[in-house]
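ERR on first pass: missing label on line 2. Operator R.T. fixed the label and resubmitted. Corrected input:
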Amino acid sequence: MRPIAIGLAALLALSVLSLFVGVAELGAGDEAWALMTISRVPRLMAVLITGAGLAICGSILQVLVRNRFVDPMTVGTGQGAALGILLVTIFLPSAPVLVKMAVASATALAASVGFLLIAQRLPPTQPYLVALVGLIYGGIIGAGVTFVAYQADLLQFIDIWTQGEFSGVLQGRYELLWLAAGVAALSYLAADQFAILGMGRTASINLGLNYGQVMLFGLIAISVVSALTVVTVGMIPFVGLIVPNLVSRIHGDNLRRTLPLIGCSGAALVLGADILGRLLRYPFEIPVGTVLGILGAVLFLWLLYRPARHAR
Amino acid sequence: MISVSDLSYGYRDTPILTDITLEIPKGGVTALIGPNGAGKSTLLSLIARLMPLQSGRIMVDELKIGTCASTDLAQRLSILPQVPEIAARLTVAELVAFGRYPYHKGRPGAEDLAQVETAIEVFDLQALAHRSLDTLSGGQRQRALLAMIYAQDTDYMLLDEPLNNLDIAASRALMQLLRQMAETHGRTIVIVLHDINYAAAYADHIVTMKEGHLGPCGAPRDIVTDALLRDVFQTDAKVRRLDGKMLIDV
Ligand SMILES: Nc1ncnc2c1ncn2[C@@H]1O[C@H](COP(=O)(O)OP(=O)(O)OP(=O)(O)O)[C@@H](O)[C@H]1O
Ligand SMILES: [Mg+2]
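pass 2 clean. output:
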């Protein structure tokens, strides 16, 4: 069976499970219907979009930076989005939500461009240095967010943006994520371009790739998806790092073929973590970010010690 | 025709290329030879817009390097770098298929697929088509990269030491293929070679370079002499003639 078919089947099974896991008793009739449409289905959709979107963003960022160890949620894109939404909350509290999103996307974009400029100056022979510098860079912006929030007495808000969590997702409070889903899907149009970028500078120029245009498109896609995710459900670590790496190890870097798989696996990973988080200390919830942190560490170790298998 | 005029290039204060003026005629195999560090790869990189020009002018037919659209040039000219740096995990078939990107921009048609298939056959890669590049031997990898350039199907091909890693059979096959492409399809091939025997046997023109300057240029039988090897390469190898062919001491 094709891997994407297996992935979709797993995703479907997890989705059904997710709909029937929860504290509220699922009765019958109108009440059950209301529970589903107001809470369970929106939560499922938010999880799926977030997982797929972040995994796809991770793989695009890795191509743009030419480094497999970067993740938008740790190298500044996510922190940039948080900074943006914080600034609008302070200075334009009554702005329409789309304006807030646009500002968050713009600051996320600026933060990503900043990281890219730094990364390009680092020696390509030291991939871990790029990842490390990214962590520090993201950390600095994150600290800036905390400082501004502290000054403005908004500390309780930034938890919402920095701690990824799905328990607050309700009908009417997550729909912006559909925009993220659209942007992530749109990025598939440039799958070939991203794959060529990943082949290196010489190969890209030889094939006449419009370097700047592809770079800009990729950065905008990453920033918009990250910003929408951060504002709606908060920062969710590891997905953008682990999923593209696992898929690349097994299925290679031909993104036209692997991007759907990356999206599907990202969605499955976050959904699995969300269900676990809901079941482990039932009836209490463990935030999805915490579960992913542990799952992610285990998967990452496995990734490091397992030889690449992309060969037939 | 590729015409290079008054081309100079340097890193900080170190000149690498000095006042190169050169015309490479359309249709034919031009060998670029010269000692290590002479500036051969630098010259090819500048022609293939891999680095920005500092001074001088390069034209490929009517396309001016530096101002013409990169996508237009990609349908006209291709380059095989001396040290290919492809880090992506791709199979041979996927790599070769990317050679068609300049034409289809992401939507390969039937003709593109046919060209990819031909390229894989021409370089005898059928058995390796679904292997990942990082599992190949040096010569197999080189053949895969050549197949990608072949699939790109351009009038001008710049090949920087394409015989690297190739065995004698693959080397001869490649040189014969290049000759045939030049003769029957009017392709222009510029090839950096270190083995002067190959240059003498297969090239229509030889361009020599030394320390960033052009040296003697011309047909192999006119310029490949003991004196050339002494002046350009500082070696006392002798050129022998046998059955009308040239043989250079090794
Ligand atoms: N990035 C760089 N910085 C400084 N000098 C450089 C750089 N790249 C190349 N050079 C120098 O430019 C000169 C020409 O290099 P080039 O690669 O063009 O030589 P080449 O003729 O292709 O040699 P080879 O036969 O060894 O491949 C060399 O002396 C080299 O040291
Ligand atoms: Mg060279």
